[in-house]
Amino acid sequence: MNGFGIFIWPAYIIAFSLITYLYIASTLQLKKLEKEIEILEQKVAAEKIKSSTSSLSQTA
Questions:
Q1: Is the dihedral of CA 17, 23, 26, 31 positive or negative?
Q2: Where are the domains of the chain?
Q3: For the whole model, what pTM was predicted?
Q4: Residue 50 has what pLDDT?
Q5: How far apart are CA 39 and CA 57, in angstroms?
Q6: E-strand spans in the chain?
Q7: 17 and 10 Cβ atoms separated by less than 8 Å
Q8: Cα–Cα distance for residue pair 40/34, rounded to 1 Å
Q9: Rounded-to-integer distance, Cα 16 and Cα 27, Å
């Protein structure tokens, strides 16, 4: 590499490390957001059940 290997290999290592970090960070954030969405969907479903139950009891 004509003496430039001392610059090239660290650049590859840094680039690979950053790509790995970004992949792991985004994967963890995705899992966190998926859990939040699931909790919100459960809350909405529970509210729908409550509102449908109360509307049925009002009509009866």
A1: negative
A2: 32-60
A3: 0.70
A4: 84
A5: 27
A6: none
A7: no
A8: 10
A9: 16
Q: Please state, in angstroms and rounded to a whole number, the distance separating the CA atoms of residues 46 and 49.
A: 5
How many residues are given for the chain? Answer: 60
Please tell me the distance from the alpha carbon of residue 30 to that of residue 17, in angstroms, as a whole number.
Answer: 20
Measure the CA–CA gap between 51 and 48, rounded to whole angstroms: 5
Name the one residue in this structure whose structure tokens are 């994967």: 27
Cα-based angle 37, 41, 46 (whole degrees, multiple of 5) = 150
Q: What is the pLDDT of residues 26-59, one digit of tens each?
A: 999 999 999 999 999 999 999 988 887 776 666 6
Measuring CA to CA, how many Å separate 6 from each of 2, 10, 17, 55? 10, 7, 17, 74
Integer-rounded Cα radius of gyration of the chain: 26
